[in-house]
Amino acid sequence: MSNTATENEHDPLIPHGHQQTGRVGDRIFRGFASGAGIFVLVIMGAIGAFLIWKSIPSLQADSTNFFTTTEWFPDDNPAVFGIAALLFGTVISATIAMVLAVPVGIGIALFIAFYAPRPVASTLAFITDLLAAVPSIIFGLWGLAVLMPNMQGTAQWLNDYLGWIPIFDNTLGIYSKSLFIAGVVLAIMVLPTVSAVTREVFIQVPSEHVEGALALGATRWEMVRMAVFPFSLPGMISAAMLGLGRALGETIAVALILSAAFTINWHITEPGGNSFAANIALKWNEAGPIGLSALIASGLVLFLITLVVNMLARWIVSRRKDFSGAN
Amino acid sequence: MAKRIDVSDLDIYYSKFLAVEGVTFSVEPRTVTAFIGPSGCGKSTVLRTLNRMHEVIPGAYVNGKVLLDGENIYDSDVDPVNVRRTIGMVFQRPNPFPTMSIYDNVIAGIKLERTKGVKRDRASMDAVVEKSLRGANLWEEVKDRLSRPGSGLSGGQQQRLCIARAIAVEPQVLLMDEPCSALDPISTLAIEDLIEDLKERYTIVIVTHNMQQAARVSSTTAFFNLAGIGQPGRMVEMGPTAKIFSTPTEKATEDYVSGRFG
Amino acid sequence: MTVISPEPTRSPESRSISESLAGKKLPRWAPLATAVAAVVIGYGIGAAGSIFGLAWFVVAALLFLIGQTAWSFAVEGRRHAIDRLATTLIYTCFIVALAPLLSVLLSVITKGAGVVFTDFPSFFTETMRNVSPRKPGGGVAHAIVGTIEEVAISAVIAVPIGIMAAVYLVEYGRGRMAKWVSFFVDVMTGVPSIVAGLFIYTFWILVLGFDRSGFAAALSLVILMIPVIVRTTEEMLKIVPNDLREASYALGIPKWKTIVRIVLPTALSGIITGVMLAVARVAGETAPLLLTTFLSQSMNWNPFSGPQAALPTFVWDQISNGTDASVARAWGGAFVLILFVMIFYIGARLLARVFAPKAR
Question: Which of A113, C196, C249, C270 has its CA 20 to 30 A from that of B101?
Fold first, then answer.
């Protein structure tokens, strides 16, 4: 390649093309651009490396099993702490969020892509996307002050009529500050992510397939099932996973809503629960050196979980490019 | 089995834009009618109004009547789903559903309707698949790989698969929107042979850019043209194919078929 | 090759259905009638007192869903009943999404505007220095300064890196390295903001030994900003027509000058959109600021030393105080914050709509 480049330099007839690297200016500029690209990789690597490095002291000091302990007393001597309760709360609240947000998000995407009157569709899309612009602190404040009082009834109803399902049973008679409410707020927060990504894939469904289904005498819903869903399935899965990644890592809204407790409580409408991110925000300023390191260790676990979820989501989407949809 | 079509005073709109104006014609059962004319003159648009696919485009609508054996398909109590079931359509680009097998593509339309008395067991589905694929001259080529994806076939095979899918629901009329424009000459020949067979049983309307093709496959030809620059499209004349290509009534038709414009 | 197929035969049942194009249809007024009936019955149940609050509305919606589906099933048949059910559910999803958005905006305006505009403009000019949590008064001046400085610093750092990384991906990136960069830009979008804060804390404060400061907060925002800028810039660079580049090469202009003088200016409006979206995203971030700069009640003009307030952490702090006066201030802060974010967000989207090529 360098060979052809130097030859081109002497040949005025060949314009400067893609492979042209001969000039100093080009080389410097290219260096900057590549450097910026590589910087992204370096940052991602550095996040992992620094979090591992700084979590080692607490992991060495921990006198119990880091993964199965529910308590959090890292600054005691000997230190006793583990992520079991955090993992539980994070997974449960994110699961509730997914159960609510994925169907609704797909519904919104279908509405905008295929059902809404065409002239207003893009405006409606813009309005639903506005949800994404609301900062999480405001969702937290709203969840605490507006949503929570209005959710009492629903949680109570779940207990009264569905209480025979263990997770809806509420033995305390108190329905606030629960994982359930945190899950609902998270669902609202990830809704724009799920619906926006799903909408993108729906819009890519070739109109030939849509028309092919309609021409066979399919109703609109049958067309959606016949032509839209099979084509969009990978995209829908990865939309859900991107939403999951957001829900797992959300800090402030969850920290404001939960009354942090280091227990594993399957009664999701009762107060309590915790999450990785919320715990870090709440414990940060009262933590000693080992406490900080323990929080960093829990942050590392969160980072790895969201990394895996996001990588899977992106991998599914990137695989889809090879998938020949448009014949 | 096959039905006749009578179109009278049909105006076709895209929102406020009048695309085709005042079309009136009839199609006899078990004939092949070809629509020819320069690009953008509304041939495909007219074709898509015959099974109410035109209104799928947002803002599109028509004024006028399209009678299928005397019943207006634009009557308010007519269900477009039934219309499209009765009048099958094959598109310009082959569009088998990419995630379905060849087998599932053929029965895609049948699976929608759960009609009483129509068996949907494996054996009767197998029979439908074989009959439809034979009807589309594709059976011999794909019978050993029915469970493979339809998108793995060649372009011409895919188009015949789409024809099989359309005839599997036993329509009365088959509309073809430039079915060969994306195909190579050999595949085109196979489709033209197939049209020859299909006209025994179906009323066929085909849009084509290719005048030789119109001359080969059709018994009746309709010539469409724009009324003028910026004007809506219209049907200039319609008649027996032999007459349209030898002694057309209108000067514009003669210019077009003799290659002087378009 | 000619295959003689038997004349297709049909069973009499299927014939009778397909022969008639007219389908039995619900009258046009059917959905409205069902809706009215559902609301009346639902409200009746609610008024009878057997259910709480707004739940009668949910009951009415369920009644509508069941009523319409059953009616349609009886008249139009299974397929149309399912189609109507799906249509109703899909419309419902959209309304369900609008409800929280409206509720959030309404409560921020109703609860926040009062605080912000009593004694206008003191809420914008005063700080929280020497203001008791129990008493009204004070303002967000220190938080506005902090937010603007932190976001500005992070933009100054993240914008060039983000744009150059996008240039790399579009103009230079070939092969495996570019694939990795592209993949990890996507993955980086999903890094939780608290992890970004943790990383800057360990790297900048624990390892390099600097103090907590607005600058440290800005660094953590850089990590959240970069992927947004890379992605939007990349999209815009991709739609710059290749003809432009080739025309420039043909004039003998070197590649880097082509990019700087022709490609980037062509994509400028899109790049500005991306930067504004990124600003809107990070301006509302709370978690990384709590770790890297923490809270402050007084004005700190210097982002390089000492704790600095910001709008999101101001809201957080006021909520934590828990008194009526503080919570009211929290809503006031939320009002200012949402105004700040929405100006950037809506501005970015409008800009994109004006300049972007037509998309469906």
Answer: A113
